[in-house]
Amino acid sequence: MTQLHLPFKFLEQAAGPNVREPWLLVLMHGVGSNEQDLFGLARLMPPQFHVLSLRAPYVLSPDAYAWFEFQVLADGERRINEEQERESRFLLGEMVASAAQQLGVPPERVVVGGFSQGGIMALSLLLTQPAKVRAAMVWHGRLLQQVAAHIAAPEAFVGKALWVSHGSADNVIPPSAAQATRALARSLPLALSGADFPGGHEIRPAELQGALAWLQSLGSAAGAS
To answer: Which positions fall inside the Phospholipase/carboxylesterase/thioesterase domain (predicted)?
Structure first.
């Protein structure tokens, strides 16, 4: 397996040994977690994917990290550290491109995905740097207003895909956030998939099965082995 040199700490699982044209799946955890969290899903991923699970750069406490810090105001609004978000988004774009190059995977076979704040980062990367990825998988995330002003031109999304799933009773990031993301996605020439699933701020089995089937369909549509 190629020894990757990247700016984030990470865990990885190589694509299956018989895969001729591997894909790259980059997973990002939610706030207060770490790279171990979503790496537990790596064994379930379609075999054409080389899986990287990243550790966010900002330390909250031992083994707890964030892509950016935020405050919840008295009215419930979230005020993010915009400098940290920009820096994470920039570094993430650089890292995804570097990992893909080191592994010999072209951008059309790169998928970024994440849960909660990690889903926010995956969505933000697809919307602002679509040339670096084929698709984004967003579990229980939301669109940042700070990112909305930097979305790429519509023609940049031709051939791209987006999975958006959410919990119908999510009390951390409300389902309306997913609805807003889908409304934006429908205004762009990309393929939108996903749904709301019963449950709160967690990935339930049916949601995971749907996302795995979507990942498999991406690879199958491109004729990946």
So the answer is: 19-216
